[in-house]
What does this fold into?
Amino acid sequence: MFKIRKTFKYRLWPNRKQRESLTATLDVCRHLYNDALQERRDAWRTCHTSVTFGMQSAQLPACKVSDEPMRGVYSQVLQDVLHRVDKTYKAFFKGRGFPRFKGKERYDSFTYPQAGFSVAGTQLSLSKIGNVKIKMHRPLAGDVKTLTLKCENGKWYACFSCIADAEPLPANSNTVGIDVGLESFAVTSDAEVISNPRWYRAAQQELRLKQRHVSRCTKRSEGWRRAVRVVAKLHRHTFNQRHDFQHKLSREIVNNNGTIFVEDLNVKGLAGGMLAKSVHDAAWSSFIAKLSYKAESAGRWLMKVNARGTSQQCPCGAPVPKKLWDRKHHCLVCGLNTARDHASALEILRRGLCLRTEMPAIAGMALEAPSFSYGA
It folds into this structure.
């Protein structure tokens, strides 16, 4: 039995005093993050000296003596803030963006990395904060490693990162190819069509009205802050709808199939074109990520195949060029006559099966494919 890392997220219900303590802790962590980042920037600009995590961590005891708010924060929480700064610098040297200072809207969580917390029934005990009511809608599984407290649009959540046993499902010999798209969210090689909910499009009219209200308010005023919270709440609702839909769909696919093939899409590139809004609304990367970790936990196979030309080639191996607006697939070689997306799903399945049998799968080349039975 192998182990996997899982995160369990629960809603917190702090009282007024606890909300103030949580917010104060978050502010201290944010100020420490910005100060640590400033120290690293200044050291390099003035002396060309790199400041390490160990050097900054050694300063914490002296900082806590001179700074009263810092004394009200658990020591390992402060150390984790310095770890975050260190990680952002390491990511920068690997080609990511340069670390930025965090405003109130950009710093929304802090972490207990090892200790300082415990759960008993409906109470979450937090060092330096107290016992906070927690809604345990499902039991924790595995060994809890870290606890991250996150504030989302004024609501607090506890995220437990755990090392848990995988939960393999019974063996299943079914194989499926999945073609994701915009007209339909996905079409499988079994000819199942999953409609595209278009959650963002459905909420767009209401969002326009709420965002106009934001634009009419004086920036940073109390009315502006209230209007921003309303917009954020609507965005969060849209995100939750999409999240729930993808979780249920990915669970159904993993439960019913032993091997799953998807396209290895460059979603970032697709999201930069004229269809960017629709691509973001579909959130293919999020869906494939959910498929991936659910398949890993269930002992299933998930394989990505080359996405180039899947809609321009017939599953029999013959090229069938199409324009973007051509929604039908008709092959003159094998006589396959079906929807364009269904043919793409069959081609994804073919390429995936070629990979499983260690045959070369090169886009644009006619490969020997497994035999399929098609209707006329």
